Model the fold of this input.
Amino acid sequence: MKKTIFAAFVVLINTSLIAQNLTNDYLNNLNTISTSVPFLSIAPDSRAGAMGDVGVATSPDQNSIHWNASKLAFITEEQGLSMSYTPWLQDLVPEISLSYLSAYKKLNSKSAVATSLRYFSLGEIQFTGGDGQDLKKFSPNEFALDGAYAMKLSENFSAGVAMRYIYSNLTGGINVEGGGATKPGNSFAVDLSSYYQSDEFEIEEKDAYWAAGINLSNMGNKISYTDGGEEHFLPMNARVGGSLFMELDEFNTISFAVDVNKLLVPTTPVYDSVGTGPENIVAGQDPNVGVIQGIFQSFSDAPGGSKEELNELMFSVGAEYWYMKQFALRGGYFYEHETKGGRKYFTVGLGLKMNVFSLDAAFLLPATSGVKSPLANTLRFTLLFDMESLYATNKN
Done:
């Protein structure tokens, strides 16, 4: 009996060690999460882009519909407009860009509505056939049209919802060998968000307040580019974060913010050498599931277990300094684990606020030395308008 128990114990230990070694192997492998329409995840405005892509709990502005629509219930100006332009991946293709237009209007002291349009252009592409012959030239493009509503549920807490229509035309209807004719992808998605802003308190005799927010974004049906073909998840995402605002004196203010992101999309499992069906999975779970199941599965399906799940978290930290509420200096950092894409970059930016309009600019600096990043030298511009001040100026 003792020998049997000892043998069973040895087998159990060996099995555990083997499983641990396999888990460690999976943790060291590149296993990024792929989605359709990734342009929905790009920071569209220069303020957030200069602060390491934080935004879920920063002070509300004209671009809050992207980061956390519920913040708009706390905005003080009656209405505003914002226009942004971002040349994207310029070191790879000079014609790729993201344009963004957003606007909001307060309905009363407790609620607001907003809308936005983002347009992503991939430049002109020459399609070729299997034997290399030229087929056609086409300019792939994608856009998303949003509408949002935010409302205060108490003096300190608000909730918001945003509805989104997504259009993605990547091929112009070209025929794919073995796949037939392609078509534009269409989808509808929703964002659910909430925001809490504390009462003012003092830190070293300086007025301050803190805020927290959460935004579940791009939750919607999958996209397909062929009739009856493979369907792809949207970049469904959970973003949570907090911020701290301090008034240093009558001329100077500073704020700090942090965001944590996780894609709510199944992780690609590890398959054996025979095939890629569910019966061939050796670690992880089948990613070919419905949207709701995919959201819940995304928290526990990584082949490397809980350690790999933690590797799927993305972190953003940022700071913003204002002088006389007219000149802003911003900085931030974004981190993504090496096995999940390895994006690491610093961001800096400036802001200038006038009576009617504000101008923001942001610049991205890769944080990985010795590796040329396609995100290097990304420059964003944003022009914001305070429509109430504009109307008052016109009247005068």
